[in-house]
Amino acid sequence: MNTGIKKTLVDLLPPATVVAVVVFWASVPQSWAENTWTMVGVTAAITVFVLVLEQLFERHPGWRMNRREFFTDLFYMVLNATLIAKASNFFAEEPIKAAKHAMGIATPWAMEMPFLAQVALVVFLVEFGQYWMHRLMHNSTPFWLTHAPHHHITQLNAMKGAVGNPIELFLISLSVVAFFDLRLNAVLCAFSVTGVISTFNHANVRSDPPLFYSFFFTTIRNHSLHHSVPYEDTRCNYGNSLILIDRIFGTYREGEADVVGQEDRRRLSIKEQFLFPFQPLIAMVRDRRGRSMSVGN
Ligand SMILES: [Zn+2]
Ligand SMILES: [Zn+2]
């Protein structure tokens, strides 16, 4: 195949996948949406598809998948779909729904909107909240300590968007979507759309979608720059899926990075990722213990 045409087709993979998930959720019956396994199946299909693309259209040899990376990433995918989702539902969605019910608030107008408008509303609500939470994480030390493990990853791959300290994963999962009455298909469609975009923007795939997509949605170019090694260079392109929000609030930066990580680019183990926010506390306890021992001596 002509290399120009092949490049164009590879570049169009992210928008084509977004269209495919929208068509899927717009056409399946409500009973499918109510079955949890449908969402699990869609997420798994997106992930497997992009993992295969990593093998076919590699972006950087330094990001090539290996067993250790694969199983670490898979662990976080399962953690997000189980414990983090349950925590988010228990501490955020259910209380929002209960408060809404107690105050007698309803938003029937949202349910009346066309399917695509409902999807767009959910994408915007999720992304607007995540943008400010993410920006806070890059501007406040306690929040940064929860987010830093995501930046300590030393290569980018399809499932890397799921990797992070559980506190961060919980904070980033919070949204006000439960406040609105919406079609379940539209809500799940929006989650799948942000899932596709976030999978591609962490993936080792050489797709550089055209401006009709990259003006609005985050790509691997913009997000790899966010994963740069110098800390100051990470303070841009906060939008998980909607880079448009960075353009509006002046945090958008053009460019890309192939060397990613933090500090000396040491890869953290799952245990280190879990303990990372408590490092100052652990150091303080160790320091005190060390001092009391030297006094004892
Ligand atoms: Zn970040
Ligand atoms: Zn990331």
What can you tell me about this protein's structure?
The protein has 297 residues and is mostly helical. The chain has 15 helices and no strands. It has helices at 3-11, 13-27, 30-34, 36-56, 67-102, 108-112, 115-137, 141-151, 166-173, 184-200, 211-214, 220-226, 244-249, 270-275, 279-296. Helix 2 runs antiparallel to helix 10, helix 4 runs parallel beside helix 10 (184-200) and helix 5 (67-102) packs across helix 9. The radius of gyration is 20 Å and the shape is globular. It starts with a helix and ends with a helix. 36% of the residues are buried. The model has no long low-confidence stretch (mean pLDDT 95). Bound molecules: zinc ion (2 copies). Residues 150, 161, 202, 223, 227 line the site of one zinc ion. The site of one zinc ion (ZN) has 6 residues, from helix 8.
List the main descriptive attributes of the protein structure presented here.
single chain, 297 residues, mainly alpha, 64% helix, binds zinc ion
